[in-house]
């Protein structure tokens, strides 16, 4: 009744931004991401008949409060699926993801937890089944089941049975790199969950966001298939800007950007004017991820590190899906 799994985080090139069902975590739009090699979570789950409640240890610290409840609720879903409702677990997670703003450690975290938890209870699931369960821990996590280029199909059904991710290309298809630019180690103030909820409910620009998704997805998939870096980068950058624009149209309005976020964005655009193909994308926090090609790695890293307020630049390749240890 014990299993250990490792999952990598992912960065969306077409963002998931909004839910149509908060309980089941069903999105209002399909999204597309790449899985990253450099950031991952390793999780062991051990079910034990002697336990009277779940225990969650993250980076050697016993976790309580909302983070604990989220994990325990998710374990309950796994227990129900396996028909073993009265069995509690000890969860031990080690995060190689900076939990600071903008890097979704919840993606690798819930993907590793789902993989280890289901295997510990003897469930033999396809990747699509596993992705669907993982989705209910954290939406973006359902994409981290796979390596490479991954699409989360929003699905149509209201019970969520057709809302899961699929792999569109493996990690060996194309060597695109991502520089994670860390600006601020402070925790973000508005979680992605709360931010997208406020946006769906109040943003004047939300319908414009949704209308733009089908074409962005189509262009992105064509760019990936033909390895057209300019196309992939331009569509990703524009999609990110549209997502962030919806937050400015919310009530009350908000933004995840700091002044240093904009400095990095401008620097990336200046790089392009100098002939270095590089494009940015940003999640629900101030940090920026920069897409580039291997031949430009040295230049890109140097330029990013020289920007004032940049604390750290971590380079990553495209990574694999869930593995069992
Ligand atoms: C901006 O997956 O963290 O990173 O489903 O509520 O857990 P929940 O939200 P989460 O949202 C991620 C939002 C995003 C875009 C993306 O990863 O697609």
Automatic annotation (TrEMBL):
Residues 7-165 form the Diphosphomevalonate decarboxylase-like N-terminal domain. Pfam families: MDD_C, MVD-like_N. InterPro entries: GHMP_kinase_C_sf, Mev_decarb, Mev_diP_decarb, MVD-like_N, Mvd1_C, Ribosomal_Su5_D2-typ_SF, Ribsml_uS5_D2-typ_fold_subgr. Keywords: ATP-binding, Lipid biosynthesis, Lipid metabolism, Lyase, Nucleotide-binding. It is an enzyme of class 4 (lyase). Residues 184-306 form the Mvd1 C-terminal domain. Its EC number is 4.1.1.33. Belongs to the diphosphomevalonate decarboxylase family. This is diphosphomevalonate decarboxylase. It comes from Oceanobacillus caeni.
